[in-house]
Amino acid sequence: MMKKQLIMEKALELFANQGIEATSIQQITEHCGISKGSFYLAFKSKDELILALIDHFMMQITSNIDYTVRNTNDDKKLLFEFYYTMFHTFYEHSDFAKILIKEQVQSFNEELIVKIHYYNRLNEKIILSMIERLYGEEVEPIKYDLIYNIKGFMSTYLQLFLFYNAPLDFDLLSQSLVEKTNLLARHTTIPFFSQELIEMINQPMKEEVTKEQLIEMIEQKIEEIEESIEKESLILLKQQLLEPTLVPAIVKGLLENIRNHPHCKWISYLLRRYYEF
After folding, report:
1. At CA 38, angle to CA 32 and CA 44, rounded to 5?
2. Which fold, 3-43?
3. Which of 51, 76, 182, 233 is most buried, by CB atoms within 10 Å?
4. DSSP 169
């Protein structure tokens, strides 16, 4: 296991059990069985470690939701699949989800707030694309309200499961929220959010990742990953960026090969956007 990955996994266990503020770097290094020097070779500070955790898990969550929305062809199943994927992914990473929700309330770290806001914006774009696909012009005046309605459902029920140990039935919950969302889409007549208000609330997004940046990121993952079908796929995807020769079906197949690897999810997400798959 790579040193950074070990530190992140062990730190997450401590953060979940005793909280971020109460966890020291000394405790993290003891839990990992490494020296403080080894820690500082991987991360400059505890704050940098926290930001790396946010990145790692939000990349996986965003990638999973984006994949579901893009690859569910049946519109009748889309909303259900969206909710199911979202809750199931957060459940798989419940330790991180608890930390994320607490940090959004308690943290005064500006960089952390900016990072969480960035991933929130990405997920809002995914939700908006789903709303426009499902309901079309019918919900044009209320589509931004629907985004926040859906996010409100997600946040409320996540906290119910994470902090109150309520029984988990993803299937029933997803069905229930599909019904609620459809009712709101069909019967809401008084919008609150306007385009102008949304633009005022949201700061400009980061620029799209360039081809050169994608190549650099792929090269880094190729170095990190041991010999596997994921590594071979990354090599072919890098070559495709440098000199396109493969048909779209093969590129999609290569993306399928890497999308479930925890260290390749974000590359898969970025490449799907780059190729508009």
Report:
1. 105
2. Arc Repressor Mutant, subunit A (1.10.10)
3. 233
4. -
Which string of DSSP letters, residue by residue, matches 97-125? HHHHHHHHHH---HHHHHHHHHHHHHHHH
Q: Which structure tokens are listed for 248?
A: 């779209």
Report which DSSP code applies to 32: H
Q: What is the pLDDT of residues 196-226, one digit of tens each?
A: 777 777 665 555 788 999 999 999 889 888 8
> Distance (Å, rounded) from C-alpha 129 to C-alpha 134?
9
Q: The whole model's pTM is what?
A: 0.82
**What digits encode the pLDDT tens for the residues 14-53?**
887 887 888 899 999 999 989 888 899 889 988 889 888 8
Q: Is 7 exposed, middle or buried (0-12, 13-18, 19+ CB in 10 A)?
A: buried
CB-count burial class (<10 Å; 0-12, 13-18, 19+) for 274: middle
- The CATH number of the structural domain formed by 48-201 is 1.10.357.10
> What ranges do the domains of the chain cover?
3-43, 48-201, 211-275
- The angle subtended at Cα 36 by Cα 34 and Cα 40, nearest 5°, is 110
